[in-house]
Amino acid sequence: MRSLLLLSAFCLLEAALAAEVKKPAAAAAPGTAEKLSPKAATLAERSAGLAFSLYQAMAKDQAVENILVSPVVVASSLGLVSLGGKATTASQAKAVLSAEQLRDEEVHAGLGELLRSLSNSTARNVTWKLGSRLYGPSSVSFADDFVRSSKQHYNCEHSKINFRDKR
């Protein structure tokens, strides 16, 4: 029998996070987690929708027995592509996220907020560590603005590597 796996935490992403819209400070109970802004909630919904679409497309392949799709990783990866890409590449990444109508800064701030919210072990009563590292050839320098913005929004580290070394 064919076994399909979609991590339950990610299945609940749309329902759990999309409903978390920021409330005025007076309405929030003391000690409760900050709610997501409308932009971040929208990006959470769209990320979950994208992940389900990817899952359904991969599930059509009869040779595939187990599938794991992380909406957060897919969305943040596309966000990084959008951040570092120019013109067509950046707009295509935003289109895959269904975020064409959002300004670039709204996309990056919203995805960053979503990542911080999901990684907040105190508010979520879970321990979930996300790591992101971008490797580039040692002969290329990352643009300072990209490094700053990718660390700020995506907590992405940057490393140079010698891709020609076969060790």
UniProtKB/TrEMBL annotation:
Is this entry keyworded Chaperone? no
One Gene Ontology term, aspect cellular component? extracellular space
- Signal sequence, start to end: 1-18
Q: Where is the Serpin domain?
A: 48-166
Lineage top rank: taxon: Eukaryota
- GO molecular function terms noted in the UniProt entry: serine-type endopeptidase inhibitor activity
* UniProt keyword Transport present: no
Q: Which Pfam families match?
A: Serpin (PF00079)
Gene3D superfamilies in alphabetical order: Antithrombin, subunit I, domain 2
Q: InterPro entries of this UniProt entry?
A: Serpin_dom (IPR023796), Serpin_fam (IPR000215), Serpin_sf (IPR036186), Serpin_sf_1 (IPR042178)
Per UniProt, the keywords (alphabetical) are: Glycoprotein, Signal
What family does the Swiss-Prot or TrEMBL record give for this protein?
Answer: Belongs to the serpin family.
What is this protein's name?
SERPINH1 isoform 6
